[in-house]
Amino acid sequence: MDLPYRIAKRYFFSRNKRSFISLIARIAMAGVGVGTMAMVVVLSVFNGMEDLNRKIFKTFDSDIRVMPTEGKRFNVSDSLLKAVRSVEGVKVVTQVIEDNALARYGNLQTIIRLKGVDESYITRGQLDSALIEGSLKLYGSNGTPYAIIAEGVRNALSISLAEILTPIELLYPRSGTKTLNLTSSEAFNQIPIRPGGIFFIETRYDDYIIAPLSIVESLMQYQGQRSALEVQTGPEFSEKKVSKALGEKLGKDFLVKDRDALNADLLRAIRVEKLFVAVTLSLIILVAAINIFFSLSMLAIEKKKDVIMLYALGATPSLIRKIFLAEGAIVAFSGALAGLILGTGLCWLQMQYGFVSMGMASSLVDAYPVKLIWGDIFFTGAIIVIITVAVSYIPARRAAETGLMERV
């Protein structure tokens, strides 16, 4: 065993438990332990929130979205679709028309986000887990078109799937209309459609109505144009790599984004919050570790005779510094190890049993999301090492210098 560590270990365990120095050391150990536990838990919660948001996005958003670089719409040709499908990793291509519209049901009306999709949308199976009533279908057995409605729209319009005689009326401003008179039926194109299913994901998708592409195309007068192409990749392919390949294939006329890029602002906000929380908790651990500074400073005074004796036996200033650095490391790492064990234990219990609830009836998950990442544990350990060296170095250097002067 290394000599400095053996001496430091003896100092740590042989102290009088009633001594003030020992009390400060244990306070420092407890502070580092609590700070470490808090950092592990909080960083894991942010990881869980990021993971939860990705699951929410995956329920509705496509893996990759192809949009025009300029304008809101573009022409879709067979050659374009063939070029998209030729890229390795592309599994399903869905043609999409999407814009704001007005929905009316009975005497109620509301602004909605109308999304027209072709039949391939249903085969993607994304909304299967979000369906709460009805069925996911765009056409009935007799060819009747159906709309898939968000829970928020259903509540705003008081839509009942059992009421088969009352359709939803979709309204969209007619192209070329210079003045929009909301009371005039001439200002809008209008198409009725029956509600077929209700889905709920979370509030950001609560204004959506999904309808057959041909119905929306006729309503909005797109005449063969589309607002986007949605691409679903194979499970064994990376979305980022397929997105990059599509961008290179289609050229500068198209903007190609994967799901993370489409939701980059929210994911970036979570990461920035996580960074600031990590810095804040690091400062808290630093404040707790300052007790190590005072503990080592007083220990250096108490063990002055021992230091002089070690010098007499041939010790060097470097050895003395290592002894007190090792002493600080024992105090800090003991607390950090306990904190890491408690923190990971709490996270594991939350993942397994979900003791802490989200507290929201509309949440997709009952328990608070937590995800342990070993990189965060390594980061926490690195912070502890840096802080320990920072607060232990000055007392260790002073102990070596004081003993050397006393010897002289």
Offer a few descriptive terms.
408 residues; six-stranded mixed beta barrel; transmembrane helix; elongated; 2 domains; two-stranded antiparallel sheet; 53% helix; 12 strands; alpha+beta; 12 helices
Report the mean per-residue pLDDT as an integer.
86
Sequence stretches where pLDDT stays below 50 over 5 or more residues:
none
Estimate the strand proportion.
Answer: 15-25%
| Structural class by sheet pairing and helices | alpha+beta
Beta strand count: 12
User: Share of helix among residues?
Assistant: 40-55%
Q: Which value, in Å, is the CA radius of gyration?
A: 32 Å
N-to-C order of helices and strands: HHEEHEEHEEHEEEHEEHEHHHHH
Order of strands in the sheet with most strands: 3-4-9-6-8-7
- The total domain count is 2
Shape: elongated
Largest sheet composition:
6 strands, mixed, barrel
Number of helices: 12
The CA-CA distance between the termini, in Å, is 30 Å
